[in-house]
Amino acid sequence: MEGLCNLFLPSSTTVHLHHFPANPLSNQNHPSLKIKSSTVSPQSQSQTSTRKKHRDFDEKYLFPSSIPIHTKNPIAIYKDIQRFAKKNKLKEALTILDYLEKRGVPVNPTTFSELIAAVVRVKSLSIGKVIHTHIRINGLENNEFLRTKLVNMYTSCGSVEDAHHLFDEMPTSSVYPWNALLRGNVVVGGKNHHKILETFSRMRESGIELNVYTFSCLLKSLGGSSALYQGLKTHGLLIKNGFIDDSIVTTCLIDMYFKCHKIKLARQLFEEMCEDHRDVVLWGAMIAGFAHNRLQIEALDHFRLMLKQQIPPNSVILTTILPVIGEISYRKLGKEVHAYIIKTKEYSKQLPIQSGLIDMYSKCGDLMSGRTVFYNSNERNTISWTALMSGYAANNRFDMALKSIVWMQQERFKPDVVTINTVIPVCEKLKALKSGKEIHCFAIKNNFIKQIGITTSLMMMYSKCGVHNYSIRLFDHLERRNVISWTVMIESYMESKRFDDAINVFRSMAVSKHRPDSVAVSRIFRVCSELRAVKLGKELHGHVLKKNFDSIPFVCSEIMKFYGVCGEISTAIRVFEGVPVKGSMTWTAVIEAYGFASCYQEAVDVFNEMITRGFLPNRFTFKAVLCVCERGGLVDEALRVFRLMTRRYKVEATKEDYSSIIRVLKNSGRTDEAERFSRLRASL
Fold this sequence. Notes:
Blueprint: E1 5-8, E2 14-17, H1 42-52, H2 59-62, H3 74-86, H4 90-102, H5 109-122, H6 125-137, H7 144-156, H8 160-168, H9 175-188, H10 193-205, H11 212-224, H12 228-241, H13 247-259, H14 263-272, H15 280-292, H16 296-308, H17 315-327, H18 331-344, H19 351-363, H20 367-376, H21 382-394, H22 398-410, H23 417-430, H24 433-445, H25 452-464, H26 468-476, H27 483-495, H28 499-510, H29 518-531, H30 534-546, H31 553-565, H32 569-578, H33 584-596, H34 600-612, H35 619-632, H36 635-648, H37 655-667, H38 671-682
Antiparallel strand pairs: 1-2
Keywords: Repeat
Protein name: Pentacotripeptide-repeat region of PRORP domain-containing protein
PPR repeats: 143-177, 279-313, 381-415, 482-516, 583-617, 618-648
């Protein structure tokens, strides 16, 4: 598809998924802003052809409004290069370097240090190698300070081989090059802690004196790989070497234990630390650790404790705590945090915090406040637009979410991978097949399709839109499959009622390197329920027991419903009784199992027992009980359950709930009451 991708919305709004120029904010090179119908003279053609030819460098091209570069002293030139480096304008800096090289003017190590730091920020390996060449030309290749910086640069840019090659040529008496090598491996990421451990072992064998920075790099790597055993050994080494009282090391240890899901050990380390040494970074590690392990209440408790000790939160803590507030819908605290952000003024201008506020308000159901934050911001970016789009989707404003992709491009912001991953489920909900296809096209053109998350979202979207063949094609062309893609393929066949094919996919998955997880098993139990496949279901039940999935609520729920559908209610009851910790989901499942087995009064009795034992029924529980009463003709029980739902438990009745009550009343001949409920339903 050439040119633009036009995305037509249900409301006839057109989405343009553009190809963006290298600098989207520059109007000078954009063809759409230079539309003129004038005749081009031969002279201008000659000038144009001349401009296309390569021009030699001249000072006027670099500094048109300043004094000529040759009249400046070297210190002033170094400052010019450093200024460009700090702004990440490396091409301009390299132009000056070339100019100085031609005239034999040397460059000092501090200037090269700034250039290397800029390369690390922009992750440009090719420019980094050019700067390395200039360092050699200036005779600074043996400078230990620059060599250390270069090792860090190569590892940060992903060229570990170049980093090791340069490191092997260096004298290994100093700790700093070793630390640079360690840090580079951490920046590269991934579960590569074995390489870092190997480097760390070589350091100790060479007699290098380890410092705090060495251990902090090691602990970050171990935490990222969840290597608990090695982390415990490192903890012992820290105690042995007397580093355990250092706040930086303690913070890294706490972070490592949280990432290894050892909450008690992290909490113990924090409590053992003197209160005077608990700085904002340590508090931030605790709050982020609890949030990472989905312990939202504990994260909020520590946030309050930090404030009580008169430690003001920094921007990192604020961006961590806002999603936590959104997840538990604590809007009041969210507004208090928002007030603090406005009061500080500095934080209110930061885009990550603005995006966090939009996300928090959206999750709390206050979309208006989220929109207010967004439209009152002086500056926006792709992340803030994606946060608004996600907020619309979370509040069922799917049409507005899809329109947002138009508006963000009108402000010259290009959708990224996260944006596309957000908007594909919106197309799925709206069943907007044309829009989904055009977003698929945009993903292909921008090389997003290699992201397995994008592909699986597209598969799900096509299956919901009834184009199952597209889902199959995407799945067949996946270079790297994972458990999620296999599960989505099963769901796709389920959506198109091709249950036998879904079972075949599950069997293929079982013999692949991606073995079925709890989600895949729960999906295939639904297939067994549809097919009444008792034998296969019992085999799956054995697999569940073998893999210890029987303690997972949604798996047990599907098993109970399966046995209820197949008429084996006694087995469903045994499964229910074997669940160690029962909740609303498991109670609802056993009620549905009784209903599937036509034991309607028994289902209502289980519901009554659930309430008696203090369990809180939710919307899905009431829906299941009302369906049971409708099928069993239990009109009085249906009315009682409806009153419980709306009056005692304050659950808002939906049109579907009213329809269920109306049908059961009409079937029992109570037409006057049915008419009254019909009027109530019409008023919704």
